[in-house]
């Protein structure tokens, strides 16, 4: 059963700012089985683990066609920060 974001995140929802953030949010939501992920939501708030980070990054790699290191997500756990790492890694 999909978890409601509001159950685990107390902060107000902030929409993804651009297409990359939307794509990454959708992958995170699918892998962690939550209804939606906002810009300032932490991967860890949804019960994120290193195995989940590997799964998320593998799916994003397939989607974008570029390397995405799971360490980026583990170190930059908020959606906006993780998306920025993906941008920097692709540059």
Concise overview:
The protein has a single domain (5-90), classed as ACP-like (Non-ribosomal Peptide Synthetase Peptidyl Carrier Protein, Chain A, Orthogonal Bundle). With 91 residues, the chain is mainly alpha-helical.
Q: Which overall shape is indicated by the principal axes computed on the Cα atoms?
A: globular
What is the CATH H-level superfamily?
ACP-like
- How big is the Rg? 12 Å
Discrete helix count: 5
Quickly name the level 1 CATH class: Mainly Alpha
Helix fraction?
55-70%
Task: Give the terminus-to-terminus CA distance.
Answer: 38 Å
Number of DSSP-assigned strands: 0
Q: Can you give the mean pLDDT?
A: 94
Fill in the CATH topology: Non-ribosomal Peptide Synthetase Peptidyl Carrier Protein, Chain A
CATH architecture: Orthogonal Bundle
Largest sheet: none
Task: Enumerate the spans where pLDDT stays under 50 for 5 or more consecutive residues.
Answer: none
The H-and-E topology, N to C, reads as HHHHH
Look at the helices and sheets and give the structural class.
mainly alpha
Salient structural properties:
56% helix, mainly alpha, 5 helices, Non-ribosomal Peptide Synthetase Peptidyl Carrier Protein, Chain A, 91 residues
Structure description:
With 91 residues, the chain is an all-alpha fold. It has a single domain (5-90), classed as ACP-like (Non-ribosomal Peptide Synthetase Peptidyl Carrier Protein, Chain A, Orthogonal Bundle), CATH 1.10.1200. The protein is 56% helix and 0% strand. The protein contains five helices and no strands. The chain has helices spanning 5-8, 19-32, 50-64, 70-75, 79-90. Helix 2 crosses helix 3.
